[in-house]
Every structure is written in structure tokens, then in C-alpha cells.
Amino acid sequence: MRDIGVGMVGSGFMGLTYSEVLSKHVRGAKLAAITGGRRAGELAADYGVPACASVAEMLQRPDVDAIVVATPDQFRLEITQQAAAAGKHILVEKPMAPTVAECDAMIAACDAAGVTLGVVQTERFRKLTMMAKQFIDEGRIGPVWMMRTVSAFPIGLTKDLFKDRQWMYDPRSGGLFMGMASHNTDFLRWLTGKNATRVFAQVSTFSDIAASAQSVMAQIEFEGGIMAHMWITTELPAPSIPSSEVRFTVVGRDGMLDLENFEFLDVGKGDKWERVYTPERFDYLKEPKSPIRLFPHIGVIQEFVSSIHEQRPPKVDGAVGRAAVEICEACLVSARTGQAVTLPLS
User: Fold this and answer.
1) Torsion angle of alpha carbons 284, 184, 108, 300, nearest 10°?
2) What pTM value is reported for the model?
3) Are the C-beta atoms of 153 and 236 separated by less than 8 Å?
4) Could you tell me the residue range of the domain that residue 35 belongs to?
5) pLDDT digits (tens, 9 = 90+) for 25-53
């Protein structure tokens, strides 16, 4: 089996992440070239691969069979269309795109070209979250009735993020909201195996951050009447809220799950709570290449590569990526109109 040559589009933190994964941790693929961003030349030199001057130049390379798109989300449609026309398979970071319309155009381009389209959703590949999903699928807490998710960050950290990511101010992008909430919305769908049917949301920016939708509260109804609440905010004062970076509570008929992706998985049943898993810790900034940190990213890339070798759709395909974006967009539409929004969006 020939290794699939993968081109990296983007040289920021996630470009580094997936370059490391492709170079050292994935079977059946290899890093072939890098383009995009001010660090592209340096990153390519670090991994001993060519640096391309443009996406177009990369797509002309015969040793590039697929690309990973780790650019700001407002550029992913155009890059996906170019890559599909060149016959290259595509894995795009989340959110897949800033709007459902752009997601549809990406899916259409890949379908027409007969190439694979995958979407990054790392929450499906963590040891802790896979364990939570297994508990639900095995009926350990009974049918799911209610869910709650919080992703809350202190305002000081948010302002630092905007300094390094000026593209998030661009109204064409999904901004920090979609970058965060596309994790949460996908995870809610994945845990239940159900689609969202209705959304009512409030959206605001309370601070002096010059970007919209920095705080969002949404009530989301899923098939079967499952109730969910999502709170996304980047505007908390210090000291913020403990254990709230990616927090989920799942209430079933017979028990409950409480989990924070990087801290704990607790099961509540009978008259007590039990801590069933504590993930290994790592320093996100000091150890970007830590195998502990890379574990879910390895799973994402390996699944995408395997789907190409096995000539099957990836488990996290364009439809999955689109569904997460659709819930996020529905939040914005609901806030703008002051009305509950029925899904699917028209």
C-alpha cells in the first residue's frame, strides 16, 4: 500500500500539529509539502519537505494526493473547490465553513470531483469522550433526556487570542464563537446520535472586544424531545469558572455523566458520583508535540487516511461538519430575529 502524500495548507499552531502527526504518528500517509502563512518556510524546513509558494503550486504536485486545510475558516470554501478540481482529497479544520451555504458548496464540489471530504472533530477521538459515548451507547445511564454544555474563557485570554488571530475580526469568518461552538454542537449530536430540530438563542458582546457573538446562550431541542442548553462565552472576569473549558453534563433516565474534556469523567448513579476516568495532563503551550495532546489529532488523521485507502466515506464527513455549523448558524439567526428557529435551515 503506497503512502498517501498529504499537503499542509496553513502553518500556524494546527499546521504544526498535523505536520507532526503526519510525520511521526500515522500509518499509510506522509507529509509531502507545506504552504500558507508566514511560518510555512520554517515549518517545511523543520520537517524536511518542500515549501510551496501557493496552494495552486501545491495542487500541481504529483506527490500530493490530499490536503489538510488549517487556514482561517473564511478561506476554506475556495481552497476546497480548488483542491477538488485538482482531484485531491480534503480534510478541513472545524468549523467546516462560516455558513451552511458554504458547507453545501464544499460538499457539492467534492461530490462532483469524486474526492473525499473529511472534517476535523477532535472531540470524537479523545479517550475520555469515547468512554462517555460508550457508556451512553451501552445504556449505562438509560435514554438521554437532557444535556448541558459550557465553554467559558476569561476575557484576558480572549484578548490575547485576538492579538494572534486578527482574522477572527473578519465578519466573513465564523469568529471565535463558531471556532468553539462547532466542537460543542457536534459533540451533542454525536453523544445522542440525534439531530437538532429547533434552536432559540441570545447572542451578545458585553465587553470592549470589537467582535460579535462573544457570549451566546442557546436552548437546543433534539429529535425525541431531548433538551440541551449551550453556553459559549469568552467574556468572564477573573478568576473565570473552574473546569469550564469544554464541559458537558448528560442526564439519562437511570444516571448522569459529568465531564470536562481535559480533567475528568464522572458517573452519577444510585446515590453517589464516581470518578471513572482522569486524563493525563499536559501543557498545551510548552508541549505542543506531546503524544498525550496529539492523541485525538492522530485519530482524526488516521481515520481520514484510512477512509481513502479503504475507498469509503470518512466517519466525520462533510454532512457531519455541516450539521455542526447549522446549529451554530441557527443560534445567530434566532438571536437576530428574536424567534425560535426550526432545523433544517431553509
Assistant:
1) 40
2) 0.96
3) yes
4) 4-120+294-316
5) 999 999 999 999 999 999 999 999 999 99
